[in-house]
Amino acid sequence: MKKDYSKEHQNYLKKQKIGIFITHLSRILLLFAVFGIWELVAKAGIVDPFITSSPSRIIKAIEELYLSGSLFSHTWATLLETILAFSISTMAGFLIALLLYSIPPIRKILEPYLIVLNSLPKVALGPLIIVWIGAGTKAIVTMGVLICIIVTTIGILNGFIGVEEEKLKLFKTLGANKLQVLTKLILPASFPTIISVLKINVGLAWVGVIMGEYLNSSAGLGFLIVYGGQIFKLDLVMAAIIILCLLASIMYFIIALFEYLVNKKRNK
Amino acid sequence: MGNVLSINNVSQIYHTKQNETLALSNLTLTANEGEFISIVGPSGCGKTTILSLIAGLIKPTKGSVYIQNKEISGPTTLASYMFQKDNLLEWLNIYKNVTIGLSLQHKNTETNKKRVIELLEKYGLGDFIKSYPQELSGGMRQRVALIRTLATNPDILLLDEPFSALDYQTRLNVQNDVFNIIKRERKTAILVTHDINEAVAMSDKIIVLSARPGTVKCEVHLSFSAELSPEDRRKEPLFYEFYNQIWEALK
């Protein structure tokens, strides 16, 4: 950093830094405030902790899960299903988008079906999936894939189609063949779109998997939530939700990190 | 001096669901080596169509196009296109942007690389080889786009209103730069524009097209002395004479 900035500029930089610090601090304070008030009103008996649970009871529930040895098995089951659903739908959606982009007649023929499938609530297919595939992990992953894949396909396809006409013209006049147009223009140009689709997909994969676990499962965080609700153990429900929150955020950050790394590499 | 480009009796019909449009009708046009030709005409008279035909992006409905006595039947690297927008790829640095044509054509030889770097240095972009397009001003970006078109060493440069997106002052400067670069590199250029000023300032020959269907209405040879830049030309009394001549022809 240059040190010969004017006093005014140094003040400006200082103010900026303080602003950022205050934002971060407020975020942490907000978190503690919410959990603190929650704990206090539950302890003071203003609300019934049996209904609302409380942070200390959630920690205890997680501890119990851990001691019974099922914390990791439940978490792992859901995490694995989500990773599978996310990877399968991303890869398949990408390949389908590529196919539809490369062969416009197929795209035209399939367009109305894509729209119908996109607007269909995939959860409605739940009973069919269970009958066709059977209950268990496979059915849950299928549910996750179904929820993600259409959005992925449409999103990535729109990214491909959005590449400017003039740039395609430019590549043609520079003598590019079809494969070169794809690898040197279409893919890098739609990278930002692909990343934003991945970010949406992470969220959707969790939705799909938890939905699937609601419908049929004997393990996983979704199972814990349903089970906890049925036996009126809301501490367990809250505990599972908190773990879900953490895992979903971590997965989102991994995508964001991937985006950052690729951008850094591209700008080298 | 031979004909670098010859367009013989070309007609072009566009088909849409509602209609068919005759865009060009029996158009004939030739360009000599090193000549700078501008095509002016009312909007919709098929100016850009002519460039697309030369680049081989579309096939003429009737007639033929030859570059260096080779008939054009598909996209060709003999001609190189420069657009209104610079179309630089924001994920590549300036050097990679400029050499994109060379790498697509697998002509990234040491000689070519050296030539491109020389071009960049000669035209004031030497310090920006590693920069990204976002970091450059509009005028610089358009110069980069020009060097990209020169990098593959085409016989003809096709300029499709490349200055119209620039603000007035930048436009005059870039016109000067582009003119000098093209003259120094001894390139044949076809410029499409609706700015008569620009056409008179830069060309050796101006072709006035009629309204649709476009056909050559008249050709005006500009007899400025060769050493005058566009900026100098604008100060000549002759400039206004040609300007009026083109203006009358367009009416």
Q: Which key features would you list for this structure?
A:
A: 268 residues; MetI-like fold; 2 domains; 12 helices; flat; B: 251 residues; alpha/beta; Rossmann fold; 35% helix
Verbal overview:
The complex is a heterodimer of chains A (268) and B (251). With 268 residues, chain A is an all-alpha fold. Chain A has 2 domains: 7-47; 58-266, MetI-like (MetI-like fold), CATH 1.10.3720. Chain A contains 12 helices and no strands. The longest helix of chain A is centred in the first third of the chain and has 37 residues, at 7-43. The mean pLDDT of chain A is 90. In chain B, helix 4 runs antiparallel to helix 5 (138-151) and helix 7 (196-202) crosses helix 9 (237-250). Chain B has 251 residues and is of the alpha/beta class. The model of chain B has no long low-confidence stretch (mean pLDDT 84). Chain B folds into 2 domains: 1-78 and 164-251, Rossmann fold (3-Layer(aba) Sandwich), CATH 3.40.50.300; 88-153, no CATH class. Chains A and B meet through helix 8 and helix 9 of A and strand 6 and helix 3 of B.
